Amino acid sequence: MMESFGADLIEQLRRNLGDAFQAVSGENLDWGALLVQVLGQLLVSVIYLGVFLGVYLILIAAIRLGLGERRTKTPLYIQMRSGLRYLAGLGALIVILAQFGVSPEVLKAMARAGFMVLGFYVVWVVFRRLIKEGTSRYRMDPSIRQLVENLFAVIAATLAVVTVLAQFGFDVVSIIAGLGIVGIAVGFAAQSTLSNFIAGITLLIERPFRIGDWVTINGQEGKVVKIALRTTWLRTRDNIFTMIPNDSVASTDIINYSAEGVTRLNIPVGIAYKESAKAAREVLMPVLLAHPEVLQGAGMEPRVLLKSLGDSSVNLEVKVWITPDNLDVRPRIMADILEQMKEALDAAGIEIPFPHLQLFIDDAKGLKPVLEPFYRLRG
């Protein structure tokens, strides 16, 4: 019963396909002739595909033999191999489509469009190479190179699409006009995005900071890990990533700790009024001079200065310099120095005071009945 049902289903599908083909073409469908024709076209297509694949492999083997094994790992060889692979695929596609009755006009348009796409790719590769060499020679920021490459890629892709469409008879002028109208509409709908984009270009040109710098932006302190066209990425000391819109970055105060190289740390220390600031300095200086991460070059000697006279303490300030590489661990260095200074002051017997209040009472006659018993005890 199942076999009979399957045979009936196949016969029904064959009949329906035949009726549909007859309705479109006006002729009766000859399944045998159609099957022979399709198999013949597929066989010829496979033969052509094998021919193009063989030619491609022979050319690649000849190039590898001529260049040598070492040069086959260079970007030039990889790009050349991609180009030959593209040409082989394009040729095979055109020949195979010709077997299925595609008109010569469409095939010519496809060939012209394919070669134009290859030309745009070659121009892109050459331009990218020039940009890479230029940024390396003039030591330009990698973000500027990324910006130029992205802009050129968008322009090249747009021109390539318009050129390819022109080969198939599309009205290029109408397409460009339509893109202009769409661009205006998108511009009004995405003002914030465009504002961040323009601010990102401004940041890349003015370069108030670079990738790897430690900065404070909008109250957020962190290391710059990426300067994109819309946002700036910071990594905090807690390994938390913060993305700040470039519009906000360009309109706020920026503190760059890495711009001038070495950085000075100011560490406050307080001692009691009965202690000598000079004696405290003599105790603290050996600690600073012995610390491995404190610089001691000309003009960067560690110092201990008297900053102010507070309510409960004599306020000193320790000034030391560290290298840009140590900005990542600046809090650790400050905590380490502060701990060693406390131990040195404790060992020297120099008091580190805490806030306290001393109260003097003069002519407080109302408190006399309360205080008289204490006076008698003292007497």
Automatic annotation (TrEMBL):
Q: Which family does it belong to?
A: Belongs to the MscS (TC 1.A.23) family.
Q: Where are the membrane-spanning stretches?
A: 38-63, 84-103, 109-127, 147-170, 176-205
Q: What is known about what this protein does?
A: Mechanosensitive channel that participates in the regulation of osmotic pressure changes within the cell, opening in response to stretch forces in the membrane lipid bilayer, without the need for other proteins. Contributes to normal resistance to hypoosmotic shock. Forms an ion channel of 1.0 nanosiemens conductance with a slight preference for anions.
A cellular component term from Gene Ontology for this protein is: plasma membrane
A GO MF term: mechanosensitive monoatomic ion channel activity
Tell me which domain of life the UniProt entry assigns to the organism this sequence originates from.
Bacteria
Domain spans labelled Mechanosensitive ion channel MscS C-terminal: 266-352
Write down what this protein is called. Small-conductance mechanosensitive channel
Task: Tell where it localizes.
Answer: Cell inner membrane; Cell membrane
InterPro entries, from UniProt?
A: LSM_dom_sf (IPR010920), MS_channel_1st (IPR049142), MS_channel_C (IPR049278), MscS_archaea/bacteria_type (IPR045275), MscS_beta-dom_sf (IPR023408), MscS_channel_2nd (IPR006685), MscS_channel_C_sf (IPR011066), MscS_channel_TM-2 (IPR011014)
Residue span(s) of domain Mechanosensitive ion channel transmembrane helices 2/3 = 150-191
List the source organism: Marinobacter adhaerens
Q: Where is the Mechanosensitive ion channel MscS domain?
A: 193-258
Provide the membrane topology annotation: Multi-pass membrane protein
**Carries keyword Lyase?**
no
What does the subunit section of this Swiss-Prot or TrEMBL entry state? Answer: Homoheptamer.
